[in-house]
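Researcher: I'd like a structural prediction for the single chain below. Treat it as a standalone chain; there are no partners to consider.
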Amino acid sequence: MRNLLEFLNKYNHWFLFVLFEVIGLVLLIHGNSYQGSVWFSSANAVAGKVYEWDAKVASYFALSKTNEALTLRNIALDRQVQVLTDQLANVHADSTLIARVKAQGLEGYRLIPAKVIDNSVSEQDNLITIDRGAADGVRKDMGVVSGSGVVGIVYLVSAHYSVVIPVLNSQSNISCMIQGRGYFGYLHWTGGYTHMAYVDDVPRHARFSKSDNIVTSGYSAVFPAGIMVGKIRYVFNSPDGLSYRLKIQLATDFANLRDVCVIDNSQLHERIDILNAAKDSIQIKEKD
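Model: Treating it as a single chain, here is the predicted structure.
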């Protein structure tokens, strides 16, 4: 306390000077319209700049939510485009078409937003870890997509985390088709470039063009039909000459993957149970 009093006593003239300056400025501004307008214009400019900085900071920290929302929106739009394409192929004039498209776009599916917390792209069998697990409704064999396209399939699940087998894994095998053509094959990655993969077993009678889109077929029950996979870049003959092998440019940038969604297909487990029951029934008959 004594030191504070000594400090105030030593520099009291400076405090008085600042006080008188403030009082003088207040009287000047309130007593003169010109000086007042100049002051308030400057103050508004400063305040505006502060508000601008504040808005930029808030916008930066909101980017995560924005990316998540955009991912959800892109997935929904991709699915709606596919349904719309299928509907237009069969319907010439229908005033309720758009309403049905919106209703059917992701009917039976629930999207679970997630963040990629670990990702590898340089291995032969890459894996991705996401921050959603069983507590969030994630289960094994669910499909995972980004706002750009297919990512992979859930392989292991804990309470709050899941491991995904991505397209960039030698064990990945996803059913897909040439958009608008109907011909389908199976997506594989053989290592090397992270933006290229192959679609095998495309029939020889298939008609398509380079740069045609490759999308999910919907046959596996893991992914709905029409989720973007990539574009055709090169066409080869299969080793046995009985089918085509397509080299495609993947739509998903796996080296820069942040926001994804797990696709919860409410009908998936029902289909799996039916298939398992059918397999068990066949095995029993074979034993008999």
